[in-house]
């Protein structure tokens, strides 16, 4: 079997989903009427500095979308908003492993999930690498209407397990009222290609509109240009109105194969080699080297996601919004450890090498590296001086192989052995929600009462198996020699909320309460004695605030407070021997005060915020990385701690100014002071590597964005620059990732303005990282990924 074999029944599933999408376009959810038109004229658009709420919020504009190629992940479009930073190790955002989204000191990356994500208001099912999904798995770039970003907290009815600091609500396009076929062809650096087609039905059957789309894209990596990144996406949406109800349905299928990037482990490594992660593009046959083979570092995922929403206008004062949704996630994460694991006792010859599944569960035995043709383990020559060297191995330059892994220490006919490790993920979610809004007068004042519930049933399965690599290019035996573990994690979530909002003259005040009730279990399929469960019910959480219309037209001041919560996820149950008795869910408190002004030709906003993140959950692993790389076996023991938290304060400023007809200036500045809080016990802090007062790793003190967009009669163009100040990579604040600037440029034209022969044809050129800046992007787990270099892409859109 080749390593690039996708998930089983790949094409059969695609055909099935395509049939479902075209036959049941009526299954999805509305976007609350806030979606922008897919063809909005950017010359008329200014940044919406926030809806009239008691908390800060911003929305992605059309110009921000144009700064990113249609080849690029939709996560990139929010990068210029105040308080937000998005980093992706891959040029086009293929690699989820190296992606991070940071909002006001809170982060979603490889090791942390602290920023909530919803799709048209529906929960994404967590964002972690092991079975989670970020928004780019659910929405194709061509179908993205926009993103609502709530930097500190979200609407009280928002549905997320992770929203300690901010929520991102990604919105899908509304179907058009007139029929249209849109095709798009894109090409770019690093063998990037994308083809998409979307059909809008226009209005039919009274007041019904729908679209269906499909796209396929691929690219290689920017370092060795040997990765095989492929993505296929199918989606459909329908909207309809009847009697006193509005129905919206959405269904998407996404299939992706990503080859990952490696982290940088020190400032010296990056300074000496700022344009390579030292993963290799060629198979050498020496496991000590081939553990860095890029095509062996892979993420394979399939996501099927859909929902139906029906909004009922029960009376002039009573509104009921209902929704049901489902999500299926299947996939695999790959690695190529440079050895086989001895998991069974053999009288002669290692069965792990000779073939066959030899063990289910159980503890790992010794590792072995070379065998003879009969499968007997060989030992290195006693007088051998190791000489095989890898240029850079997990941050160790010129790493010399131990004698047990050096081919020069064994006979010429010895067989080097190596594993292909698969971690399999499978998640099924179903859920429903109901939101009731009652608008009336109370003592002569306008009053709105809201109440709602959210229920979700989820089961996540995870197993890990080890395969013997049998040939070149990491071909492996399809039958594993060891199934290390096989577990299921059922989880139930229930949330309720109640909020009252009253308007007295120029002042609107709100007060709300919400609570999460979350239960998660571990069911071990090999050893039922390892079954466990945790309960992470929240307290009743308070939120509220006021908005004051000052009397100056367009100017309002707001003050908000909210208590946020992150449930204990099934990730805490992945280490069966870990002590879970004293852990608590993570919580945060957010306070914001700010102003928003909307004038005739400019918008501005200014916000001061204070976040207090408590009960930060940290895992102390008893098995550390060795000098020859990570512990691929991953120990099952260790201890969880609620080790303090994070204190984050800052200021966000944004201005959008229409300088003249067709010319717009946008600037945003963020100042952030984010530091670690201790537990109050110096010994516990030291044990967990926490130094109270140290700056939070990966969080810059200053962010500054300036963007200039122009629209003429035939052409349009824009240029944007984002400055990110120094960040610390490690908890001890000794490794500084230096400040950097990334400049993006786009130029486009509507060829209909050139000739009527080209009516409906548009061209768009995007250059990301125009000045080819070398920089460190994502920071996670005290290491960092190199940012992508200058990348040029061209898209042609044709409408019929």
The total of beta strands comes to: 44
Q: In one word, what is the shape?
A: globular
Quaternary organization: single chain
The major beta sheet can be summarized as: 22 strands, antiparallel, barrel
The structure class reads: mainly beta
Terminal CA distance reads 43 Å
As residue ranges, the low-confidence spans are: 1-48, 623-628
Give the helix level as a range of percent. under 10%
In what range is the share of β-strand residues?
Answer: over 45%
Based on CA atoms alone, the radius of gyration comes out at 27 Å
Calculate the mean pLDDT score and round it. Answer: 89
What is the tally of helical segments? 6
Helix/strand layout:
Layout: H1 10-23, E1 58-59, H2 62-66, E2 84-87, E3 100-103, E4 106-108, E5 116-119, E6 122-123, E7 144-150, E8 167-172, E9 180-188, E10 192-200, E11 208-219, E12 229-242, E13 245-259, H3 267-272, H4 287-290, E14 298-313, E15 318-335, E16 340-341, H5 351-354, E17 359-360, E18 367-368, E19 370-371, E20 389-393, E21 396-400, E22 415-416, E23 419-442, E24 445-468, E25 482-504, E26 507-524, E27 532-535, E28 541-549, E29 555-566, E30 586-598, E31 602-614, E32 617-621, E33 638-642, E34 645-660, E35 663-677, H6 682-687, E36 702-711, E37 715-724, E38 727-728, E39 736-737, E40 740-750, E41 761-768, E42 776-780, E43 783-786, E44 791-799
Parallel strand pairs: 5-8, 17-25
Antiparallel strand pairs: 1-7, 2-3, 3-4, 5-6, 7-8, 9-10, 9-44, 10-11, 11-12, 12-13, 13-14, 14-15, 15-23, 16-18, 19-22, 20-21, 23-24, 24-25, 25-26, 26-27, 26-28, 28-29, 29-30, 30-31, 31-34, 32-33, 34-35, 35-36, 36-37, 37-40, 38-39, 40-41, 41-44, 42-43
